[in-house]
Amino acid sequence: MKSSILGTACWVTICATYVSAADHSAATRDVVMSHMRAVGQLDVDAYVAGYAEDAKIVTTTLVYSGHDEIREFAEAWFAEFSRPDVAIEMQSMIFEGDTAIVIFSADTPENVYDLAVETFFVDDGKIVTQTYVVDVSPK
């Protein structure tokens, strides 16, 4: 049985206050918000379904290509963020055309994420590239 991450569930609610800015792409907003719901519900299948078949997640250490590798990334992320006492604080969400930027900080039992920046590039209703850059310190 999947459980929700309280911080991430709140994160999705907070995001709704940021997407009302003018000049954002409704399609990009919808894709990224669906992604946020998948994260909040710890739904790996929905998370992966939001990406194009040949999508990439680019981090400072690895590149995850295609659905299988993106699933590995999601499972590792969900494992850390599904633990008790996780706090996520949304800093900002910006939508412009086919691009979205999400900035947040987080605290898990294992790490402190002083700053996390995700950039999403969306095409034809799917995430085609995501960057994930974090300033993280182990506890």
Which secondary structure elements does this structure contain, and how are they paired or packed?
Layout lengths: L5 H13 L7 H15 L3 H6 L1 E9 L3 E3 H16 L5 E10 L2 E9 L3 E13 L2 E13 L1
Parallel strand pairs: 1-6
Antiparallel strand pairs: 1-2, 3-4, 4-5, 5-6
Describe this structure as you would to a colleague.
The protein has 139 residues and is of the alpha+beta class. The protein has one domain: Nuclear Transport Factor 2, Chain: A. 36% of the residues lie in helices and 41% in strands. It has helices spanning 6-18, 26-40, 44-49, 66-81; strands at residues 51-59, 63-65, 87-96, 99-107, 111-123, 126-138. Strands 2-1-6-5-4-3 form a six-stranded mixed sheet. Strand 1 (51-59) and strand 2 form a beta hairpin. Helix 1 (6-18) runs antiparallel to helix 2 (26-40). The longest helix is centred in the middle third of the chain and has 16 residues, at 66-81. It starts with 5 loop residues before the first helix and ends with a strand. Mean pLDDT is 86; it is low at 1-24.
CATH architecture descriptor name:
Roll
How many structural domains in the coordinates?
A: 1
Order of helices and strands: HHHEEHEEEE
* CATH fold-level label: Nuclear Transport Factor 2, Chain: A
Strand content: 35-45%
User: Major sheet: order of its strands?
Assistant: 2-1-6-5-4-3
Q: Would you identify the regions where 5 or more consecutive residues have pLDDT less than 50?
A: 1-24
- The N- to C-terminal Cα distance equals 29 Å
The global form is globular
**Helicity level, as a percent range?**
25-40%
Largest sheet: 6 strands, mixed
Our count of helices gives: 4
If you average the pLDDT, what whole number results? 86
CATH class category name: Alpha Beta
Structural class: alpha+beta
Would you count the extended β strands for me? 6
